[in-house]
Predict the structure.
Amino acid sequence: MTSKMRVEFQVDIVVEPDGDQFHAYCPALKGLHVDGATEDEAVRNAVNAAEAYLESLIKHKEPIPISASPGSLAPSAAPTNARTRTERLDVKVA
């Protein structure tokens, strides 16, 4: 019987207004961009996407970006109208 481990990561998520919605992205995870009707929804969507992204990297034995494990990355050149939120991710490892 195998048990699944969980690994905690901490990543920064940058959220900025985008018209009447919000755009969120994670500088540590290339290509991770999501949106949401509210700032909180955009952050939730980014957290869900980041967890799936990291689970996929682990499953396929791909390297984890150093800035995503286990510390945080200060976003470089974040837009002035953006907020940065540091979120803890609980990622399962098969």
Helices lie at 39-59. Confidence is low (pLDDT under 50) at residues 69-76.
